[in-house]
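Entries read sequence, tokenised fold; example below:

***
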Amino acid sequence: MKAIWNDQIIAESDDTIVIENNHYFPPESIKKEFFKSSETHTTCAWKGEASYYTLDVNGKENRDAAWYYPEVSQLAKSIKGYVAFWRGVEVIK
């Protein structure tokens, strides 16, 4: 799977985990140079508190377009630290 935004591959992996129709990419599969930490946090009732990244690709920003769970509930332990995308990020095979 590939995550693409602004004509740039920002993550690539054959080992994503799909939960609620979102592909979660292993942390080592993201291209860290395109990710900036965000102060945004949200809470999922069964996964825990999500943290976000803002994407910065070729001079354009996509605020809070990626999220991950640094700490997770027991039910979501398989995606701890894995990164998922939204806000126009295309995930394809």
In short: The mean pLDDT is 97. Residues 2-92 form a domain with the Metal Binding Protein, Guanine Nucleotide Exchange Factor; Chain A fold (CATH 2.170.150.40). Residues 3 and 9 are 6 Å apart (CA to CA). Strands lie at 2-5, 8-12, 17-19, 22-24, 35-44, 48-57, 60-68, 83-85, 90-92.
